[in-house]
């Protein structure tokens, strides 16, 4: 199935917006018309975090909302164990462009 460039861009931007929690990065309306290659460094980090953390969070029963500012990442949400949180933090720290990762995750037993 071939997706038109505008459809792919919209999909990527919607994924990026979904990755950003309230109070984090906000896309302005013009961003809908900007190619993904023209995203800011923080927007690229947020998009990549969503790509790598969502499958891990879903698999572990965690809920995670990344917040990015100047390469510093805060992970907010909850997880069933310290080990799951530790793994999410390690994965986030390995995303290109991330300078620091802080946890605001809480443990929520299943």
UniProtKB/TrEMBL annotation:
Domain BON: 41-109
A Pfam family reported for this protein in Swiss-Prot or TrEMBL: BON
Keywords, in A-Z order: Signal
Source species, domain of life: Bacteria
Signal peptide: 1-21
InterPro entries named among the record's database cross-references: BON_dom (IPR007055)
Protein's name according to its UniProt entry: BON domain-containing protein
